[in-house]
């Protein structure tokens, strides 16, 4: 079926063919992709070269720029390549030339460049008008015997020249130098290998054509060997790549740790090998960025001390720097270690193929067999013709007088040849050689030389015929050649292969410099962290304390950056934030919202927080109380998790319910809670079951119609309980003054008939003399009140002290301190304590 949908003929008799867009796109794209794959991006499995590389080398060979000849300007070579074989831009051609000359990218460079050829830092090479080129000795092995009909030639782009389809490649370039390229729908990433290991594998495969991958590797083929060295991890990835054509390895920089100054016990890390294709300058910069941004403690200075002696990067550590942890961090977060995906794709049999190691070896050996066969045929033909001529010359020289007489009496060259053929029974080629012979060659010495040459040629012909007719002889010829290469090119392995890819485990705490932080957590989720050193410079004024106008402070206190900040929210979730993850702020800043760390719902609020460095306590519990009258206890051990910076459920809540209180206890405390209507209950903590994180809880009290719990507290008989009314009153009562009640009752009333005046309780909490109370008034003003300014009264005495016209919400500023204790303590920080920290810092 034709893809032409319509024929149109205009008045100029020009035909317009109209095709469907789907056909055109598919057809044209397939042509484009085929061109990119076969003629641009992928190497040939036989010589390991992309077309542009092959054309560069052939053009240099054509210019006689061999390794033993003078250099020529790069611009001259690039012009030759573009003009004759590769009609593309000069920049990509010069780029291909430069890459083949860079020893940190090629195991055995194919081009010998004089001048600036760039650097491992990523510096650009000098312009082509300044640099000079010639072929390396290695490249000579690729191009050798081109004139002996060992490979096919095809016309160039304009049919004015001929170029080779593939090079003879007397050394395994693809495996030794590797290749990279991105085509359409496929790519290749062939790593370099050690020359001796590759040659040994080829020899082993020639001797054992049925050998397996396992046998080849046991014979000494270890894996990739990169020109920049490094430590390779991932033996299974190497085996997978050699078996299937695809695999993954890790390349780690070679590092050593040495003592810098014994007196100060300062260490330094020395890097003298880096991963393949990693730019040294970028690596040094990334390591220094880690130091500047203080992402890890212990790095004092980073220096690049690379010189003519070799690569050397020095990382000076502080006296308390942990070299192992710093290295682990750098391996994971910089290019000190990279992952390399092996993708063994090459053009084989005129199409791209994913190849195993065995196939790579077989294709190369097959190419060498063909090259040697064609070379032997060519040489046999030349020697046979030479032998024919020598035999004719010997016949002629035996009767030289008669030969001279025949030639002298002939009218011309043709007649002379005919007379010689008739007289001595010679061939046309022999007669041609005789008539072309110069008289000085008629000496006796030359006759003896011809006889000797004849014998040598006969021996060589026998040898060539044996190569052509006996595969064992041909194989032995190949083995001898590869054995000579091993002697010419000593190749000590540069990369070390070390087991499987090691999991990098970073103990972040071990890499941190211990520091004390002053942290503030607000009800709306704002976290402000101030370094103790900055705080100790002077007592700050709370009037300048940055906050949102309608927000109140829930917690405030000191935390070590090695500790964890535990937050509990109104939606029954908890969050654990490592102290070193807290962003430092200034006193006047509002802080950092928790949503930058973990996403909360818009209505989700922070109701409590604690400092924890170890969750494995047997006698610390969390008492959770909800607004609709549910309560539960959870062991602190249940909150242990490795899922930092995420919300985790600690209590399942019914629709419309929320947490109003979270307290930490030792398992033997009183629980006191109050409701909006003014009822208060007090009962032992043991009356509340210990439940799992997913449980809803049990009843905390008997709530009246539209009544709800506004707050709760835990404590001992010596503690003080506070309630706050909507009318702006705050009242404190001793725990011991409160009646013990049954959990399922309404409890005792602290406010007499509050509904008559529309007064309700808005909050309740523990407020001892060293605590501070945080109030948000009806005018949305923040009011900070020392607990000692609120008198302690009996349960029946009035509504308490008036502190504002009305109060919307209130809470005690409390940062629970659960560090290294078997009981839970609440911690607050006053301005006086801030002054104490200042004095400590001065000391």
From TrEMBL:
A Pfam family recorded for this sequence: DNA_topoisoIV
Keyword Cell membrane: yes
GO MF terms, alphabetically ordered: ATP binding; DNA binding; DNA negative supercoiling activity
Residues the record marks as active site: 130 (o-(5'-phospho-dna)-tyrosine intermediate)
Secretion signal span: none
GO biological process, one term: DNA topological change
GO cellular component: chromosome; cytoplasm; DNA topoisomerase type II (double strand cut, ATP-hydrolyzing) complex
Alphabetical list of InterPro entries matching this protein: GyrA/parC_rep, Gyrase/topoIV_suA_C, Topo_IIA-like_dom_sf, Topo_IIA_A/C_ab, Topo_IIA_A_a_sf, Topo_IIA_dom_A, TopoIV_A_Gpos, Type_II_DNA_Topoisomerases
Top-level taxon in the UniProt lineage: Bacteria
EC number: 5.6.2.2
Main enzyme class: isomerase
Keyword annotations of the record: Cell membrane, DNA-binding, Isomerase, Membrane, Topoisomerase
This protein's record includes keyword Repeat: no
Topo IIA-type catalytic domain segment(s): 42-509
PANTHER family: DNA GYRASE/TOPOISOMERASE SUBUNIT A, DNA TOPOISOMERASE 4 SUBUNIT A
Protein name per UniProt: DNA topoisomerase (ATP-hydrolyzing)
């Amino acid at each position: 079926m034709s893809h032409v949908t319509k024929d149109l003929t205009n008045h100029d008799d020009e035909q317009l063919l109209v095709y469907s867009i789907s056909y055109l796109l598919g057809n044209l794209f397939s042509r484009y992709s085929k061109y990119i794959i076969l003629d641009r991006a992928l190497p040939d499995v036989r010589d390991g070269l992309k077309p542009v590389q092959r054309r560069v080398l052939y053009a240099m060979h054509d210019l006689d720029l061999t390794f033993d000849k003078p250099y020529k300007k790069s611009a001259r070579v690039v012009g030759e390549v573009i003009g004759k074989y590769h009609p593309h831009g000069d920049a990509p051609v010069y780029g291909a030339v430069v890459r083949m000359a860079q020893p940190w990218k090629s195991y055995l460079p194919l081009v010998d460049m004089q001048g600036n050829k760039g650097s491992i830092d990523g510096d650009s090479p000098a312009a082509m008008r300044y640099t000079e080129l010639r072929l390396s000795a290695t490249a000579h092995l690729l191009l050798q015997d081109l004139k002996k009909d060992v490979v096919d030639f095809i016309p160039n782009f304009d049919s004015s020249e001929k170029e080779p389809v593939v090079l003879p490649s007397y050394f395994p370039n693809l495996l030794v130098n590797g290749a990279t390229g991105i085509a359409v729908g496929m790519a290749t990433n062939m790593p370099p290998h050690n020359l001796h290991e590759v040659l040994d594998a080829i020899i082993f495969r020639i001797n054992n054509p049925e050998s397996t991958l396992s046998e080849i590797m046991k014979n000494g083929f270890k894996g990739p060997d990169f020109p920049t060295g490094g430590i390779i991890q991932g033996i299974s990835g190497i085996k997978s790549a050699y078996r299937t054509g695809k695999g993954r390895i890790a390349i780690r920089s070679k590092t050593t740790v040495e003592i810098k100054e014994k007196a100060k016990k300062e260490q330094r890390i020395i890097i003298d090998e880096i991963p393949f294709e990693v730019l040294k300058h970028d690596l040094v910069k990334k390591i220094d960025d880690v130091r500047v941004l203080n992402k890890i403690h212990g790095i004092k200075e980073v220096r690049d001390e690379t010189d003519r002696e070799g690569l050397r990067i020095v990382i000076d550590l502080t006296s308390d720097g942990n070299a192992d942890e710093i290295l682990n961090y750098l391996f994971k977060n910089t290019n000190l270690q990279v992952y390399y995906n092996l993708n063994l794709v090459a053009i084989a049999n005129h199409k791209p193929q994913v190849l195993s190691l065995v196939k790579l070896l077989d294709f190369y050996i097959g190419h060498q067999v063909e090259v040697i066969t064609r070379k032997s045929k060519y040489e046999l033909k030349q020697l046979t013709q030479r032998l024919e001529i020598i035999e004719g010359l010997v016949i002629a020289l035996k009767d030289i007088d008669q030969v001279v007489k025949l030639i002298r009496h002939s009218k011309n060259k043709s007649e002379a040849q005919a007379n010689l053929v008739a007289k001595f029974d010679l061939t046309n080629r022999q007669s041609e050689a005789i008539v072309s012979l110069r008289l000085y060659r008629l000496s006796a010495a030359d006759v003896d030389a011809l006889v000797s040459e004849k014998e040598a040629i006969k021996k060589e012909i026998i040898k060539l015929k044996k190569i052509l007719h006996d595969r064992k002889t041909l194989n032995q010829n190949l083995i001898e050649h590869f054995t000579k290469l091993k002697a010419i090119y000593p190749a000590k392995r540069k990369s070390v292969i070390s087991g499987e890819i090691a999991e990098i485990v970073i103990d972040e705490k071990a890499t941190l410099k211990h520091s004390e932080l002053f942290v503030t957590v607000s009800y709306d989720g704002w976290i402000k962290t101030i370094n103790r050193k900055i705080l100790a410079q002077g007592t700050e004024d709370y009037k300048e304390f940055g906050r949102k106008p309608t927000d109140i402070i829930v917690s405030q206190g000191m935390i070590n950056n090695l500790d964890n900040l535990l937050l509990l929210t109104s939606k029954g979730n908890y969050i654990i934030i490592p102290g070193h993850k807290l962003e430092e702020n200034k006193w006047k800043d509002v802080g950092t919202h928790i949503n930058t760390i973990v996403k909360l719902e818009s209505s989700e609020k922070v109701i409590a927080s604690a400092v924890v460095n170890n969750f494995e306590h047997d006698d610390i519990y969390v008492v959770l109380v909800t607004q609709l009258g549910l309560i539960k206890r959870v062991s602190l051990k249940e909150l242990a998790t490795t899922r930092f910076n995420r919300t985790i459920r600690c209590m399942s809540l019914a629709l419309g319910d929320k947490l109003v209180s979270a307290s930490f206890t030792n398992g033997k405390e009183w629980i006191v809670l109050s409701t909006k209507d003014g009822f208060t209950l007090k009962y032992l903590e043991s009356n509340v079951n210990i439940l799992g994180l997913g449980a809803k809880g049990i009843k905390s009290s008997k709530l009246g119609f539209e009544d709800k719990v506004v707050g709760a507290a835990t404590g001992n008989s010596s503690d003080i309980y506070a309630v706050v009314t909507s009318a702006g009153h705050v009242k404190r009562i001793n725990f011991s003054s409160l009646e013990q009640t049954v959990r399922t009752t309404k409890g005792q009333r602290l406010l007499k008939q509050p509904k008559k005046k529309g007064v309700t309780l808005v909050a309740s909490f523990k407020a001892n003399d060293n605590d501070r109370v945080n109030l948000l008034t009806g005018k949305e003003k923040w009011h900070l009140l020392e607990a000692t300014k609120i008198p302690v009264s009996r349960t029946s005495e009035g509504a308490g002290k008036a502190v504002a016209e009305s109060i919307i919400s209130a809470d005690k500023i409390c940062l629970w301190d659960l560090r290294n204790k078997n009981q839970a303590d609440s911690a607050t920080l006053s301005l006086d304590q801030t002054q104490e920290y200042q004095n400590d810092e001065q000391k």
